[in-house]
Amino acid sequence: MANEATERAPGCSAQLVGFDFASKREFALGVGELEAAFERQNFVWIDVTFSDVDATRAWLTELGLISDDVIDEALTREAATQLSRYDQYLHFVVSECHLVGRALELERIDCVVAARFLLTIHRHGASCLDAVRKNYPQDFQRFAKTPSFLIYELWDQLAESYILVQRALEERVDELRIRLVQRADDEAFNRVAELGSDLLNFRKVLLPARTVLQDLGTRRSLFLSSTTQPFLMNLVGTVEHVQQELLVDRDILAGALELQMSLVAHRTNKVMRKLTVVSMIFLPLTFLCGVYGMNFRNLPELEWRHGYALFWFTAGAIAVLVGWLCRRAKLW
């Protein structure tokens, strides 16, 4: 944005933009102008992208806006949505989700909201924050009355990203469902396992996100306008809807897998029934072969002229009879 200033520091960069809600004016400023902006009762959004933990820790400590504990947590912890309340500010963590190929990746974004500033900290580029930068100028001019509108803008973009991820996962579920029915192989089962893991991980993101969002939307705070809270509660419904759709996707995937297992079991049963018929036919024939294969001299049929023909007639009659009985019993 034209009204943003970018500050370069060792191991990180910061984009700063100031807001004057009385005159509906936004303006660029540097880190050295923060104190003057605070004295003028302006609100400042500071977005920090870091690559080096130690250098960024030193820069944030020198900035002096948040405590060392919050700095360490923001720079070293894994992505996990949570909310902490302090006397001087609110600190909440959100997890941005996006799909890279077939892998679900999470990006931790720490947000610190105080009376005069919003500080966002993240390691890599955050698409939801880019969307906030793109969309907030119009909302700021038309609707915004308090700095809390930035919190709503952030959660609105997060909810939109959750919807997009859920739709992408839904397409993968439908693709795998068709593949399991038509042509199941080892790769298909591996992809089912991967997708099941992604669905579970995504659910682990949505559950705390809903809890934090509901807390922000219901519990009063000095740093969050009461006029913004009803809009945050509307987003709670959006996140709940995504959760329900995710559960449906998981049920569909489980149903497709169970159907495939049932088809495999059915095909196995058909093969076993055929093998059973063959065994039933050859079992009495094996008995006859065993009898006439014994090394006894007193076997009258061996000396009889028509003994060989009688053996084959008996064997054929038994095979036909057993086959007819199996057919009648619908074994094949």
What does this structure look like?
This protein has 332 residues and is α+β, with helices and mostly antiparallel strands. Helices cover 60% and strands 18% of the residues. It folds into two domains: 5-262, CorA soluble domain-like (Beta Polymerase, domain 2), CATH 3.30.460.20; 269-328, Methane Monooxygenase Hydroxylase, Chain G, domain 1 (Up-down Bundle), CATH 1.20.58. Strands 1, 2, 3, 4, 5, 6, 7 and 8 form an eight-stranded mixed β-sheet that branches. The N and C termini lie far apart (75 Å). The model has no long low-confidence stretch (mean pLDDT 85).
Percent range for helical residues?
Answer: 55-70%
Helix/strand order, N-terminal first: EEEHEHHEEEEHHHHHH
CATH classification class of the largest domain: Alpha Beta
Q: Do you know the CATH topology of the largest domain?
A: Beta Polymerase, domain 2
- The assigned CATH architecture of the largest domain is 2-Layer Sandwich
Question: Biggest sheet, in brief?
Answer: 8 strands, mixed
The radius of gyration over CA amounts to 36 Å
Q: Estimate what percentage of residues fall within beta strands.
A: 15-25%
Count every helix, treating DSSP H or I runs of 4 or more residues as helices. Answer: 9
CATH superfamily annotation of the largest domain: CorA soluble domain-like
| Number of separate domains | 2
3D shape: rod-shaped
Mean pLDDT value: 85
Contiguous uncertain segments of 5+ residues: none
The first-to-last residue Cα distance is 75 Å
Number of β-strand runs:
8
Structural class, by secondary structure, is alpha+beta
